[in-house]
Amino acid sequence: MDRIRYPLVLLMVVSTILGLWAALRLIGWNLAVPTAGFAEFHGPIMVDGVLASLIGLERAVALRKRWPYLAPGLSGAATLALFLPNGEQWAGLLWTVSGAVLTLVFLTIYRLQPSFHGGIMVVGASLLAVGNLFWWATSQVPWMVLWWVSFLVLLIAAERLELSRVFRISPAQRAAFATGTGLLVAAPLMSLASFPDAALLAGAGLAVLGGWLLLYDIAWRNVTSPGKPRFLGVTLLSGYVWLLCAALLVILGGPTLPALYYDAFLHSVFLGFVFTMIMAHSMVILRSFLGRDIPFTTLFYVPLVLVEGTLALRVYADVVGWETLRMWAGLLNVVAIALFAVLLVGSIARGSLRWVRELFHPDFMNVQ
User: Which pTM value belongs to this model?
Assistant: First the structure.
């Protein structure tokens, strides 16, 4: 399985670099681009080529079967297909098929272990598949973005719901969670008829789920412990605050949702919520990929603070229409992501050196 896994990780890294490059171009930095219109693919690359690939790869590793690797494989291939003749059509097709395979992956997991949160994950993955299908047919990212938002928020919220079961969730709490879920499922469906109404539905859903997670998630228990658990708790709670911020931006933006409010809303969800969830769970995800623990360092707080601070600047710049500040804040967003990646690689290398030292330690040799 490892021979399948590592090339897919490399594809995901390439997609991340391309997606961030497109982001800088889209926000106004005059960078060279490989193809005309490349910057417009920032959203699909980041959602499908990076985030959906990461989710698909994680689930494929957990299932220990070969066919689930099709989802991240097709998604990574779609990013590369963008540079072929008629690349947008090829990419749309591959991302649509990848979303369908990912839905089958979550359906398989649900059939093995039926549960409320597992059913939500199946629905969330199906929203990705349908959203990708519509994007393939229309190439209109703004109209399809609610499908991608609902996909990511539902999957992450459902996973946190699973972990929060230790608190013995009451029927009222479960009903509140189901209400938020229902609103986020209804929002992309409503977008086919009326995007303004759909945006308000999505805002309501984000508010309910963000509030639920902030009140009932086990992250509060992590905050009281030192080291890695505290970093996990702080990062999770900050992500939930950004989810509430995204809901507030939709409400303040009104039915027409101006372009800069739209930018602030999207990055509050994708960067403020989704990326901080990745930061929080990165060491757990990498442990499943590599088969050993990743050492924690307090330096991880540096990119976390940088992400939070620069995103706050970006949202402020969007709200007041300060274009120069928005460009610099966007650049620093990318720097924060790159810094976190560098620290992760350094932590993996440090852990590998420790593993080698333990391997050749006399006590280890005697035990063997």
Answer: 0.92
Q: Give the tokens for residue 273.
A: 């919520």
DSSP secondary structure of 266-299:
HHIIIIIIIIHHHHHHHHHHHHHHHSSPPPP-GG
Residue 365 confidence (pLDDT): 39
Q: Which two tokens stand for residue 235?
A: 């990062």
- pLDDT over 90 percentage in the chain: 69
pLDDT of 360 > 50? The answer is: no
Q: Residue 285 and residue 349: Cα distance in Å, rounded?
A: 16
* Residues 6 or more apart in contact with residue 144 via CB below 8 angstroms: 131, 134, 135, 138, 191
Phi, psi of 85 (to 5 degrees): -60, 135
Q: Comparing C-alpha atoms, which of 170, 162, 236, 248 is closest to residue 203?
A: 248
What tokens were used for 158? 């459902």
Give the chain's length: 368
CB 20 within 8 A of CB 45: no
Identity of the residue numbered 232: L
Q: For the chain, report the end-to-end CA distance as a whole number of angstroms.
A: 26
| For residues 227-241, average pLDDT | 95
Contact criterion met (CB below 8 Å) for 269 and 275: no
Q: Which of 10, 156, 125 is nearest to 73 (CA)?
A: 10
* Tens-digit pLDDT profile for residues 134-192: 989 887 777 789 999 999 999 999 999 988 776 778 899 999 999 999 999 999 999 98
Does residue 28 contact residue 323 with C-beta atoms inside 8 Å?
yes
